[in-house]
Design brief:
By secondary structure, the protein is α+β, with helices and mostly antiparallel strands. It has 13 helices and 25 strands. It folds into three domains: 96 residues, no CATH class; 138 residues, Adenine-n6-DNA-methyltransferase TaqI, Chain A, domain 2, CATH 3.90.220.20; 145 residues, DNA methylase specificity domains (Adenine-n6-DNA-methyltransferase TaqI, Chain A, domain 2, Alpha-Beta Complex), CATH 3.90.220. Strands 12-22-18-20-15 form a five-stranded mixed sheet. A hairpin with an 8-residue loop joins strand 6 and strand 7.
């Protein structure tokens, strides 16, 4: 029997009390002047990292106005696109933007709930699934502040909380060390792959024609659909956010579906079209592409373009990963808070056009490299994914309790 099991048997043999988050904590309602923060103490949704990876120094710091104050021990959650799982346990004092929720344990519960334990509970897959389920909005879904406060959390005795945190901290350290080794090896392989990909798609001067994409095809903008339109089974659909969180170079099945009755109201990509994300949080995200190789049409969101052309679709998608493409694209991206790229500007970007046979040869070579580097069923990525799943399973198991009878 583990130390945790012993403590539970001793201190809460009849189960653990559960409470709504709003009964034990609240959103910070105190303010701090923007002039009092810097890159290390300002937290916006852009410098909170996805997948529970904490936060980084912000390259953007507001120069005027007031921000939401956060304190040591507050749990900060990115409230835009909650499926990105952005969360951080504050280790310093500072200010955060309105897109970040600062959750603070109530004074009356300081002796009953440890911030480190609350952070672990709100980092779980179960919480983020709940947060995503109740998010509102189509283009940039936001977590529901009221529903978050209704989320029920276990409140075991402090000794149990501290032992769980200790075990998870140890497990996290061991997992992080292994991940760092695997990530370093994987990053080296990705750099090698990127270099080889860019070399294959760089042609001697005069060797091939470089033609503006607008002269080789057309860009068809999608039409809006929202979360309430999405169903488990229906018409295949691709949301712009999925292009840079789910899809690789090409796809023949969609992650999402929308109600079939909407078909006449939507615009679709056809097989062999290249679907392009027209907006993103970063310049790098904008212009991310996926070649649609499914047998049927797929509905696309209004922040996507379907590029209809006569080239090899995967060749186009691979080219849109290269430094050459990014250098051209960078001249046209509108750099507001949400980065955007128009069809007119995409049409100006030039692409090399070798013969279809040469395009197919390049694609075949890059497919083999792409599988070795990016396919989660092969090699290092599979090992890395397995370690993360192992940690997530162990963490969520430790945070699962039998609820005490009322």
């Amino acid at each position: 029997m583990s130390r945790i099991d012993e403590l539970i048997k001793e201190l809460c043999p009849d189960g653990v009390e559960f409470k709504a988050l709003g009964d034990v904590a609240a959103y910070s309602d105190s303010r701090v002047s923007a002039s009092a923060v810097d890159g290390d103490t300002f937290v916006g949704v852009d410098n909170l990292r996805p997948n529970q990876a904490g936060r980084t120094v912000s390259g953007y710091v507001p120069i005027a106005g007031n921000l939401t104050e956060y304190r040591v021990g507050d749990v900060l959650i990115g409230n835009i696109r909650p499926y990105l799982k952005k969360i951080w346990l504050a280790t310093n004092y500072g200010g955060c933007s309105g897109d970040v929720l600062a959750i603070r344990i109530n004074d009356s519960f300081h002796d009953l709930l440890a911030p480190e334990f609350l952070y672990r509970v709100l980092s779980s897959e179960k919480f983020f699934a709940y947060d995503t389920q109740h998010a509102k909005g189509g283009k940039m879904p936001r977590g529901s502040k009221s529903m978050i406060m209704k989320y029920r959390i276990p409140v075991p005795p402090l000794e149990v909380q501290r032992e769980i945190v200790r075990v998870l901290d140890l497990f996290t350290t061991l997992e992080a060390e292994l991940e760092a080794e695997l990530e370093a090896e994987l990053e080296a392989r990705r750099r090698q792959y990127a270099h080889y990909r860019d070399s294959l798609l760089t042609f001697p001067e005069g060797g091939v024609r470089w033609v503006p994409m607008g002269e080789l095809g057309e860009f068809i903008r999608g039409r809006r659909f929202v979360r309430s339109d999405m169903v488990d089974a229906g018409m295949p659909a691709i949301h712009y956010g999925e292009i840079y969180t789910h899809y690789g170079v090409a796809a023949n099945e969609s992650l999402s579906h929308v109600r079939s009755g909407l078909a006449s109201q939507l615009r679709c990509a056809r097989p062999r079209d290249v679907i392009i994300a027209a907006v993103g949080e970063t310049v790098e995200d904008v212009g991310k592409a996926v070649a649609w190789l499914g047998s049927d049409e797929v509905a696309i969101h209004d922040d996507c373009f379907a590029y209809r052309h006569s080239l090899d679709p995967k060749y186009v998608s691979y080219f849109m990963q290269t430094e050459t493409f990014h250098a051209q694209k960078g001249k046209y991206v509108a750099r507001a808070k949400v980065k955007r790229l128009s069809a007119a500007d995409l049409a100006k970007i030039a692409i090399p056009v070798p013969s279809l046979e040469e395009q197919a040869r390049i694609v075949a070579i890059l497919d083999r490299f792409d599988a070795l580097v990016n396919d989660l069923s092969i090699g290092l990525p599979a090992e890395l994914a397995a370690r993360r799943k192992q940690y997530e399973y162990y963490r969520d198991r430790l945070l699962t309790f039998r609820e005490a009878a009322a």
